[in-house]
Design brief:
Carbamate kinase; single chain; 8-stranded mixed beta sheet; 11 helices
């Protein structure tokens, strides 16, 4: 077992990021079965004594489902409107499932200024600290309903890495629709092999990252490598695992060699 996976086993403060592709079906409808199992697993990890910060995508997808649309609109105002609609839908579902397992959650919506303005950054750290001391799980998303290109972080992979840095997390786990980083595209190359350990992000590793993922999501593997560079530069371990297999979070935190782990520098 690598040193990074040993550290992951004992990590106490962990950021868990889940992507739109894990939370929803292709048509934008939320996958309630998968959400329920994920929330149960996160709550159980919290019960075991770990501090979990939950970064979630899915607001626009939830808005698409609520409005019964068949695809994501092209214009910024329409997507902002769907984010505003979907954020309430998503939090209502999270509140419902978390409360069924006896866990309280708190919502925080961020923009880039939170990470770049020293006072806002300090306020965020203090708020997260108080929330965690209360035994509450923070649920974090970018404020897509009001954000413009100038104040957007851009994707929730990089958002989760910024959050992990701001809250002094030991590890960041990204749940996505792929098992990890492959040496070539597994969707087009059946012989593609997964890379389980990345001690250093080289130019070759960066070239293995593809473009955007599904139509409903924003970030593909490329943004996950960006997030890994940011996280590991701050000494934070980053792990990419499939969010479609129930129990993967626990398996990873028990030290099993699943997904791709990027060593903190």
């Amino acid at each position: 077992m690598s040193a990074a996976r040993e550290i992951l086993k004992s990590a106490r403060r962990i950021v868990v990021k889940v992507g739109t592709s894990t939370l929803s079906y292709g048509a934008g409808r939320l996958n309630l079965y998968r959400i329920d199992n994920l929330i149960r697993e996160i709550t159980d990890l919290r019960n075991s004594g770990r501090e979990i910060i939950f970064v979630t995508s899915g607001a626009i997808a939830a808005g698409i489902g609520k409005m019964r649309l068949t695809e994501k609109p092209d214009t910024i105002p329409e997507n902002q409107a769907l984010a505003a609609i979907g954020q309430g839908v998503l939090m209502h579902i999270y509140e419902k499932f978390f409360s069924e397992y006896g866990q309280t959650v708190a919502q925080l919506l961020l923009t880039k200024s939170t990470a770049t303005d020293p006072q806002a950054r300090e306020n965020f750290r203090n708020s997260i600290g108080a929330i965690l001391r209360m035994g509450v799980i923070p649920v974090i998303n970018e404020n897509d309903a009001v954000a413009t290109d100038e104040i957007r972080i851009g994707d929730n992979d990089n958002l989760s890495a910024l959050v992990a840095d701001m809250v002094d997390a030991e590890a960041l786990i990204i749940l996505t629709d792929i098992d990890g980083l492959y040496d070539s595209n597994p969707k087009t190359n059946p012989a593609a092999k997964i890379i389980h350990d990345v001690p250093e992000i080289t130019e070759e590793i960066e070239k293995m990252a593809g473009g955007a993922g599904t139509k409903l999501g924003i970030g593909g593997m490329f943004t996950k490598i960006q997030a890994a560079k940011l996280a590991t530069a701050n000494g934070i371990i980053l792990l990419i695992i499939s969010g479609k297999e129930i129990g993967n979070l626990r398996r990873a935190l028990n030290g099993e060699e699943i997904g791709t782990i990027f060593h903190g520098s």
